[in-house]
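Query structure, 432 tokens:
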């Protein structure tokens, strides 16, 4: 699905100036004992990540490229609708953080929504996963994607709430309201992964815990084409016990515990099964322990260096991680694994990210922040960044610092309605 490039040689150096932060739940930022360098690091990480979305979006369509060279723009023109969803949210963050002016961000958001509403090919309101950034036309015979349309719509609805612009608000509302969610059920109780004009619905279903929560909640909250509330109960929630940590999981990389949380604020609430924020905290702790237990095979892993999720590798794009072990692990580190979990485990996630930059410097830190992945054991460094990985980094860093994305997105009345429909209740006692 993605492409990979050549590696470089890494030289290990002593880590210096790495801020240690002792904190768990992100009730406020910075935490009482955070060193100033932690806030500075997050600001630099966000600024670099935002730069990708500003430079990798086509200025005429707003569609964001699936990937780019880590050191700057390149000629590739394949966009991803998921990256575009992150990009719309990035525009809100960029304005909020004064990386660009509010007028600049608003104009880019308007262009994007105009194109999506009026010119972008769609079917029943769903979009193709990969498209040409200049035309919006389908590429690689990609599927009409349910989950990637959901990621796009999360960005659409964030922009609707942030920008006090009637046209943006109207375009965003029309994009959301025209999605025919029951069609993607294909007569079942759970969503199909997608649909192709050549062969119809894909055989795989969103039927087990993963990043699927955003998909179901958007569909449940729709005022025009909702799915039954029973759809929330239809997907499985298997549990894993790992080193005294018990949590709902699926055999998939760490990002499945992150993506819905980039927009939906699950802190302090639970449904009939769990508090999903706490669940992701446990999953992140388990993943860190899993990486520490790999030190006999990969001696550079440790408390200072950990994190594996789906990413580029020396052999191409790989779906890997754990626990339990998934994929052909080879000692590669993936910065967005920790960055995407910043609100769940701030101290440990910040520490490994700062260590990566301190030890490997310009080998792994480029124009858009961290490269997608690198292997300190072999010297391989990926030449690219991937839009969704840059996106989860930017959004979760902002949620750690201010909760801005959560606060903005959760103002959407359809979101609140969806969570009410499936029975989310405040924790007792409340977490915050």
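Result returned for the query:
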């Amino acid at each position: 699905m993605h492409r990979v490039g050549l590696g470089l040689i890494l030289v290990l150096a002593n880590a210096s100036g790495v801020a240690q932060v002792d904190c768990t739940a992100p009730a406020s930022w910075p935490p009482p004992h955070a060193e100033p360098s932690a806030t500075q690091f997050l600001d630099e990480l966000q600024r670099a990540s935002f730069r990708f979305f500003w430079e990798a979006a086509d200025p005429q369509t707003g569609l964001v490229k699936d990937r780019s060279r880590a050191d700057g723009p390149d000629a590739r023109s394949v966009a991803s609708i998921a990256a575009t969803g992150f990009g719309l949210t990035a525009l809100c963050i960029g304005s909020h953080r004064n990386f660009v002016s509010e007028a600049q961000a608003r104009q880019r958001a308007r262009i994007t929504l105009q194109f999506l509403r009026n010119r972008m090919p769609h079917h029943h309101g769903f979009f193709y996963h990969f498209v040409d950034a200049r035309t919006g036309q389908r590429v690689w015979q990609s599927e009409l994607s349910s989950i990637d349309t959901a990621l796009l719509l999360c960005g659409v609805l964030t922009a609707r709430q942030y920008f006090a612009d009637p046209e943006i608000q109207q375009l965003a509302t029309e994009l959301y309201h025209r999605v025919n969610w029951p069609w993607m059920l294909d007569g079942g109780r759970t969503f199909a992964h997608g649909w192709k004009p050549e062969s119809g619905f894909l055989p795989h279903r969103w039927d087990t815990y993963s990043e699927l929560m955003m998909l179901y909640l958007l569909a449940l909250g729709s005022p025009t084409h909702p799915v039954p509330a029973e759809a929330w109960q239809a997907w499985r929630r298997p549990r894993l016990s790992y080193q005294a940590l018990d949590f709902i999981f699926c055999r998939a990389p760490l990002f499945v515990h992150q993506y819905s949380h980039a927009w939906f604020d699950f802190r302090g609430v639970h449904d009939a099964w769990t508090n999903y924020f706490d669940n992701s905290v446990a999953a992140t702790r388990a993943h860190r322990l899993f990486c520490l237990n790999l030190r006999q095979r990969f001696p550079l892993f440790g408390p200072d260096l950990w994190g594996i999720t789906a990413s580029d590798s020396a052999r191409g794009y790989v779906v890997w991680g754990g626990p339990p072990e998934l994929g052909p692990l080879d000692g590669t580190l993936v910065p967005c694994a920790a960055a995407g979990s910043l609100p769940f485990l701030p101290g440990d996630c910040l520490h490994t990210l700062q260590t990566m930059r301190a030890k490997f410097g310009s080998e792994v830190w480029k124009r858009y922040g961290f490269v997608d992945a690198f292997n300190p054991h072999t010297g391989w460094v990926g030449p690219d960044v991937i839009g969704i990985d840059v996106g989860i980094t930017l959004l979760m860093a902002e949620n750690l610092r201010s909760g801005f994305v959560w606060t903005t997105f959760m103002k959407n009345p359809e979101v609140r309605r969806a969570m009410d429909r499936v029975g989310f209740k405040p924790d007792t006692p409340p977490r915050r």
